């Protein structure tokens, strides 16, 4: 309950102060949530005496060079090709189906929109005029689009580090690329950026 009170107090204060002040509060808030999550996880594991995911942490520690491990399960994963890095020929195979190009196109547009919207939301009232100009070349990033943008980036990092996890990324790539290519908001954003926007063209 104490953690929840701290989180809510930080959320209320996120909209106060200038850009750097808000950004600092946001980073502190994210770090606090991550630390509390890890502490609660460790606490529950100690109480229930759970060790089911210990080998995963040992595998990750050994995989990224933070020390060797004598754990059998972790070493077994290290020997498997499926748990290695994603091979580069994956991108050429994805490009042959034109999926990768569509995905990169949509990912670039949505990332730019997310950065602009985040900057606008974190900016103070003294930058309203600048943000009104930025509004002309962007759309409001909807929560569902932002959620899927974060997911596809995280799935991509997971697939790059562990080849077996590419099944999560490739399926999400299809969904994300099709959303972007069929979304009027994405085309509206693109046409506004190149000053060719009309409702008929969209």
Automatic annotation (TrEMBL):
Its main location: membrane. It is a multi-pass membrane protein. One of its GO terms (cellular component) is nuclear inner membrane. Keywords: Glycosyltransferase, Membrane, Transferase, Transmembrane, Transmembrane helix. It comes from Zapornia atra. The chain crosses the membrane at residues 26-44, 98-119. GO terms for molecular function: mannosyltransferase activity. Belongs to the dpy-19 family. It comes from the Eukaryota. The gene is Dpy19l3. Pfam families: Dpy19 (PF10034). This is D19L3 mannosyltransferase. It is found in: Membrane. InterPro entries: Dpy-19/Dpy-19-like.
């Amino acid at each position: 309950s104490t953690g929840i009170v701290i989180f809510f107090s930080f959320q209320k204060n996120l909209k106060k102060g200038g850009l750097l002040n808000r950004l600092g509060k946001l980073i502190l808030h994210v770090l606090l949530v991550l630390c509390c999550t890890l502490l609660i996880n460790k606490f529950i594991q100690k109480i229930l005496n759970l060790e089911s995911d210990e080998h995963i942490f040992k595998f990750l520690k050994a995989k990224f060079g933070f020390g060797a491990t004598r754990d059998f399960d972790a070493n077994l994963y290290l020997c498997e090709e499926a748990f290695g890095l994603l091979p580069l020929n994956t991108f050429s195979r994805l490009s042959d189906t034109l999926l990768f190009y569509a995905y990169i196109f949509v990912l670039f547009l949505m990332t730019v929109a997310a950065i602009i919207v985040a900057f606008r939301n974190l900016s103070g009232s003294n930058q309203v005029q600048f943000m009104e100009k930025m509004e002309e070349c962007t759309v409001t990033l909807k929560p569902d689009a932002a959620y899927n943008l974060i997911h596809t980036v995280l799935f991509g990092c997971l697939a790059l580090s562990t080849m077996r996890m590419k099944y999560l990324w490739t399926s999400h790539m299809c969904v994300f690329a099709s959303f972007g290519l069929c979304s009027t908001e994405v085309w509206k954003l693109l046409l506004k950026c190149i000053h060719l926007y009309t409702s008929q063209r969209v």
